[in-house]
Amino acid sequence: MIKNKPQCYSRPSLGILRSQLSRPKRSQFNFTWLFAIIAGVIILILAIYGTTKIIETKRHQTDTETGKSLSILTNPMQAGWAEGRYNKITFRQETKINNLCNDFEFGRNDISVATSSGVGKEWIQAGGATSIHDKYIFSSSEQGKEYYIFSRAFEFPYKVSDLIFLSTKNYCFVNPSTKIQRDIEGMGVQNIEVINCSSNSVEVCFNSECDISVYGDETSGRVVKDDGDYEYVGNLLYGAIFADKEVYDCNVKRLLYRTGKIADVFIDVGRKREAREIGTNLVPHLILFQGLVMNSTSDDLISLQPLAKDIGLINDKEVAGVW
Amino acid sequence: MVAKRAQFQIQQMAFMIVAVVIFFVLVGMFFLVYQSRNLQGNYEQLQKDEAISSLSVLANIPELSCGSLCLDLDKVEVMANKDYSDFWALGSVKVYQVYPESSSIVKCPAPNCNYWEVYDSGQKNIKEYSTFVSVCRKKSEQGSVYDQCEIGKLVLGVEE
After folding, report:
1. How far apart are CA A208 and CA A300, in angstroms?
2. Which of A103, A159, B76, B138 could anchor a disulfide with A253, C-beta 3.0 to 4.6 Å?
3. A83 contacts chain B (CB < 8 A)
4. Do A54 and B84 touch (CB under 8 A)?
5. B interface mutation test: which of A136, A272, A274, A282 has the most B CBs within 10 A?
6. How confident is the model at residue B135 (pLDDT cuts 50, 70, 90)?
7. How far apart are CA A321 and CA A312, in angstroms?
């Protein structure tokens, strides 16, 4: 190739010939390096992108597993025949527990978890939600490393389920009734102070105004918070304090539906026993009660309470109570 | 001559890059296979944990229970005819009476029956976990009411 070139052009000088000879060598060096750099950069970008994606997938997987574990960990909180239980869950990183509630019939709590990370984005989309149909979890949108869980039974008038309260904030109960104070102290719930309030805790004042105000006692009343008023009966008081309005109303609707379904079971059990000469006067009362509670909401709780109380008294007086 | 050498070097580099990419793809595939196995293992473990912890929860729900780890057979029989499909996040719920012993399993309702199918989702791949419970029924004799209790087994089925 080089030999033919002088035939086309005028005879080059020795200096030009040298520079022409050296040109391909320099371009070869440049192109090789350019090619290597471009290829290297592409490989590096792909590797970094791939690693980030793998880390995100792994975080999503871990968050999903944590959500499922949370559902399993709350099983022992369903206290059975005990009055209530308390536990603490400690995460390695800051964690957000999302609680989406669905109130159609038995409904469900969809629990998903998002953990913060020092690698990549601090927060990514929460892991896959775990649907919990047989529990009533009261929580609000919070984030923290330590979550305090305690449970109390919901009886209306028979036991319906155990209510599970989940929170990461510190609360201070100001001037509660003796029964509530004993309840809290008895369970040893660490994030609820009763007498000495620390400065960073949310104040819950009974029959006076502060961060969260409770007008009533342990049997029934109204909780006033920034996002609205919550009517409660019995241990739903804690749900009203710890949960968001949306979660509270949804869980109460689910609970009342379940109350009605249990009444339906008890009606059939009562009839079955009547056939074996184990009489009960509860059936007509339970039929009325079932009709009222099935489609009720948290606004109806206080008006339903006297009927529930009467049914409870009738059952207590019977030789063979239905529950 | 120089151009040929450059061409050869570019080819060499291209092959090298292809080899590096194939290496990373293979490593990635091994990683994904390991991860999916790990995920499957974790899923099975979590399902097992949930089933075992659900046993005591289920034995204490008011729809079935007559006390701690005690099932009321009147409630069990009523529940077998109720639609609770949206409530059970399970494959099946069965109750067996295991003592006094019986030579065969007879599904209730039937005379001398000893097996109650409370719920069956119809799923095929179900793994069962069980716990012993008391199974009691209220009886009336000469005006007094008492609980007659036997030994039973509560069996939960979860999707495999």
Report:
1. 24
2. A103
3. no
4. no
5. A272
6. very high
7. 10
Looking at the complex, does the CB of residue B104 fall below 8 Å from at least one CB of chain A?
no
A36 or A140, higher pLDDT: A140
The dihedral built from the CA positions of residue B105, B110, B113 and B115, taken in this order, carries a sign that is: positive
Query: Nearest-CA neighbor of A267 among A290, A234, A241, A294?
Result: A290
Q: What is the pTM of this model?
A: 0.85
Burial letters B42-54, b for 16+ CB under 10 A, else e: beeebbebbbbbb
Chain A residues whose beta carbon lies within 8 Å of the beta carbon of residue B68 = 80-81
Q: Are A114 and A64 in contact (CB under 8 A)?
A: no
Sequence-distant (≥ 6) Cβ neighbours of residue A156 within 8 angstroms: A233, A234, A255, A259, A293, A304, A305, A308
Exposure string (b/e) for A47-69, b if CB count within 10 Å is 16 or more? eeeeeeeeebeebbbebbbbbbb
- Per residue in A235-274, pLDDT tens? 999 999 999 999 999 999 999 999 999 999 999 999 999 8
* CB atoms closer than 10 angstroms to residue A73: 16
A49 vs B: CB within 8 A: no
State the DSSP code for A220.
Answer: E
| Residue A112 near residue A127, CB atoms below 8 Å | yes
